Amino acid sequence: MKIKVGSKLSRIQYVEVTSETTLGVALKCLDTDMTWQVSAEIMKQFVHSTEFATTEKVTRTTLAEILGKANGKIMQVKFKVQPKIDDLINIAYSEDGKSKSKAAIKKEAKTFGGKERTMVCHILGTENVFGRSLALDLEAKKGDGKHDARTRLIDHRSLQQIIFNGVKYELK
Question: Which end of the chain has fewer CB atoms surrounding its CB within 10 Å, N or C?
Answer without folding.
Answer: N
